[in-house]
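hey m, so remember when u said the C-alpha cells were messed up on ur end? i reran from scratch. heres the input so u can diff it against urs
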Amino acid sequence: MKKGKFNKFITTNPWLKLISLVLAIVLWLFVVSKGRTVVVMDVPVGLRNMPAGLELVEGPETISVYVEGRERLLKKLGKGDIRFVIDLNDVKEGDNLFSVSDADIELPKVFAVKKILPGTIKLTVEEKAVKNVPVRPIIVGLPANGYVVGGIRVSPGKIRINGPKSVIAKVYSIKTEPIDITGTTESFRVSAALNISRENVMTDVSEVEVRITLGRAR
C-alpha cells in the first residue's frame, strides 16, 4: 500500500477503526481466558531442617493458595500436586516471621498462583526439653458384688516425654485410656494406651501394662 493510500486509510473513519480494534482485543482476551478459573486450596505448611534442640510450639497448619488454570485441569489438581515447605535452617528461639511468595509454592507449570493468604507466617520455636513423669492408670466402673480392687500396678511406672520447654514444664503425669473393670471377679492384666492430651508432647512408648488385683470384700 502506497504512503498516500495508507494515510487515507488511517484518517478515514478513525473512530470506527478504533472501536473495531478495541472489539478485536476484547474478543482475543475472551478467547484466551475462556475456560480458565480460580480455585482456593488449603495447602499444608511443611517444615524442614529444624535445628537440633529446638521444637515448634505454634504455627499455622495450612495456608490458602488461590490457583488459576483451565477448569478441566483444576478439577484434576490434588493436594499432593501442590506443596509449600519452609526451610528452618536459620530459625531462632522465639517468634520467627516468614514471607510467602508465589515462588515458594510448588505446583505444575500449567497453573498460576494468584494470591496467598496469609502472606506472612509466624512460627514460634522453643528449646526442646526432656523429663520422666509417672503414669496414672484411669479405672472406671466397679467389680462384681463382693469384690474390691486390692492393688494396681503399672509397668513401666514412669515414661520419658519430650517437647517444647514451656509445654513439658506443665506436664506432671500421663494418664492411660480408661480401663473398665465393671463386673470383674478375677485379677487381670491389660495393655492400656496412653492418653496424650497435650499437643507437641512425645513419649518413648505408646502403651503400658496395667495389672489389677481383685480380692474378696471383707
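this time it looks ok to me. The first strand starts at residue 36 and ends at 48. if urs says something different then somethings off w ur setup not the seq
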